[in-house]
Design a protein that fits this description.
Oligomer: single chain
Helix content: 55-70%
Number of domains: 1
Strand content: under 5%
Radius of gyration: 20 Å
Shape: rod-shaped
Number of strands: 0
């Protein structure tokens, strides 16, 4: 019987979670203390472009971690 998740799966999963958290941290900020004053920093490239891309990469890494199957496990199943 083979384990569903290997060490490599868990490492990819943890990397994906870290990327998602990093992306959300990149989205923080840009607000204003006074609601009557507009702060253009809310539309910075970091919050509009970079942070969502980092989050999407994290979600993609999690999907890869779930779908990843070690080649040695595949050859063991074929031999059975």
């Amino acid at each position: 019987m083979t384990a569903t998740f290997t060490k490599k799966n868990y490492m990819i999963l943890i990397t994906g979670v870290i990327l998602i958290v990093l992306g959300y941290f990149l989205m923080i900020g840009g607000g204003s203390e006074d609601p009557n004053v507009f702060n253009p920093a809310i539309f910075d490239a970091q919050r509009i472009t970079v942070a969502p891309i980092v989050c999407l990469l994290g979600f993609a890494a999690i999907v890869v971690a779930i779908m990843w199957k070690d080649k040695s496990a595949v050859t063991k199943e074929i031999k059975k």
